[in-house]
Specification:
This protein has 395 residues and is an alpha/beta fold. The protein has 2 domains: 7-45 and 150-218 and 333-388, FAD/NAD(P)-binding domain, CATH 3.50.50.60; 89-142 and 221-330, 2-Layer Sandwich (D-Amino Acid Oxidase, Chain A, domain 2). The protein has helices at residues 14-24, 59-68, 71-78, 96-111, 121-127, 149-162, 207-212, 245-251, 262-266, 298-311, 356-371; strands spanning 7-10, 30-33, 49-50, 89-93, 116-119, 137-141, 145-146, 166-168, 173-178, 184-189, 192-195, 198-201, 221-230, 240-243, 272-275, 281-284, 320-330, 337-340, 346-350. The strands form 4 sheets. An 8-stranded mixed sheet has the order 5-6-4-14-15-16-13-17, with helices on both faces. It has a 6-stranded mixed sheet with strand order 8-2-1-12-19-18. Strands 9-10-11 form a 3-stranded antiparallel sheet, with no helix packed on it. A hairpin with a 2-residue loop joins strand 10 (184-189) and strand 11. Helix 1 packs parallel to helix 6, helix 1 packs parallel to helix 11 (356-371) and helix 2 (59-68) crosses helix 11 (356-371).
Length: 395
């Protein structure tokens, strides 16, 4: 274990891996510290989507598109297969009320130059013939892609190691030492100390614990999501399919209400279908605040299955082989924190909720630019920790 570094990154998920890789590209001496194994937390318990369709028009969509455009060349750059595909995605629309909201959403995204379009009832069923017959339309985002999230994390680490980064797994950070002027001096771990002037808190749902070591409030808390995994079967749909109501479940908007049973609202259920490179598929999604609990809750799994059959009745005869739950790092405004802080040399890259995979590359690049004193790829005002100056994190 080295005794010093230019930058120490705390956290070995996809965000920490991306930050490590892009800092290593700057020819800095970089050490990542992870208390478990690479991608052992949220990054191993999610889907692999790199999406624009679930981003609000404006800054959110612009940030996501910048990151998305970095993925096609990454596999060649690091020489690692992440199973990247770009088949686009489809938001399916259930009612005329949803169609009105979707049309306005589409118009705003088109004004940003994004490749989206509304599909009528005939088009959407031509595109996905196994959809329930009463689906009246869809919103297609042609640039959306997907990959294997574990392969993304391991690929970024592989690339970072080739550039000289040091990776310390099964190493727990127990404290952060400061100089007399309040700036970062060192990282204290259960295996020794690391002298450094710069620390990146990329600890995901554990970011508040790391922030507390330097008396910073990081308003991130875990938001559980559960996923069903189907057996290998015939192609149900050719690409990512999501109900338009997903946006309501994600952003808690009040523009319209879905016609769903109360448990769907209680558990934050919205239909999400993702085919995999292994010829099966994943079904999500749910959103619940249950602390650090990653136990699968049978009523939630039942609601996920019911919602899936509503959109694809053919799924009624397909077996589920397993389920799992993960914890998204949630912030109150659903935007990540990618920021310097009031503690000189202490940075935060956390709070991406369900967008960690898709925003990983732009997060890594922005963080490398911040630490090196360069102009960032995009303004980071909406991402600064200071926007939560008066925020309290509930237990």
């Amino acid at each position: 274990m080295s005794s010093s570094a230019d930058v120490v990154i705390i956290g070995g998920g996809v965000i920490g891996s991306a930050v490590t890789y892009y800092l290593a590209k700057k020819n800095l001496k970089v050490i990542m510290v992870e208390k478990g194994d690479i991608a052992q937390g949220t990054s191993s318990k999610c889907d692999g989507n790199v999406l624009i369709h679930d981003k609000l028009p404006g800054y959110d969509a612009s940030l996501a598109k910048l990151s998305q455009d970095m993925f096609p060349g990454l596999a060649q750059e690091i020489d690692y297969d992440m199973h990247w595909t770009r088949k686009g995605s489809l938001l399916v629309i259930e009612s005329e009320q949803e169609m009105e909201v979707a049309q306005e959403f589409c118009r705003k995204q088109q004004e940003q130059g994004l490749p989206v379009r509304i599909m009528d009832q005939y088009e959407v069923h031509e595109d996905e013939p196994k959809l329930a017959k009463d689906i009246i339309g869809g919103l297609e985002t042609q640039c959306d892609g997907s990959l294997d999230p574990m392969a993304l994390a391991f690929g970024l680490i592989y690339g970072a190691k080739k550039l000289g980064a040091e990776i310390l797994t099964y190493t727990t950070v127990t404290g952060i030492g400061l100089n007399s002027d309040g700036s970062v001096a060192k990282i204290i771990t259960d295996k020794g100390e690391l002298l450094t002037k710069n620390v990146v808190n990329a600890a995901g749902i554990w970011a508040p614990e790391i922030g507390a070591m330097v008396n910073l409030n990081i308003p991130v808390k875990p938001r559980q999501g559960q996923i069903l995994v189907a057996e290998r079967t015939f192609p149900v749909a050719r690409r990512k399919v999501v109900e338009f109501g997903y946006l309501m479940a994600k952003f808690e908007g009040n523009n319209y209400q879905r016609n769903v049973p109360p448990e769907m609202v209680e558990y934050g259920i919205a239909f999400v279908f993702e085919p995999t490179h292994a010829n099966n598929f994943l079904i999500g999604s749910s959103r619940r605040f249950v602390g650090l609990d990653i136990t699968c809750h049978n009523p939630v799994l039942k609601a996920l299955a019911q919602r899936a059959v509503r959109f694809f009745p053919v799924m009624r005869d397909i077996n589920v082989i397993r389920s799992y739950a993960g914890l998204r790092p949630y912030t109150p405004d659903h935007m990540p924190i990618v920021s310097q802080t009031d503690v000189p040399g202490f940075y935060v890259a956390a709070g991406h909720e369900g967008d960690g995979i898709g925003l990983s590359l732009i997060t890594g690049k922005i963080m490398s630019q911040l630490i090196c004193g360069e102009t960032t790829e995009i303004t980071i005002e909406p991402l600064k920790l200071s926007r939560f100056a008066d925020e309290k994190v509930s237990a």
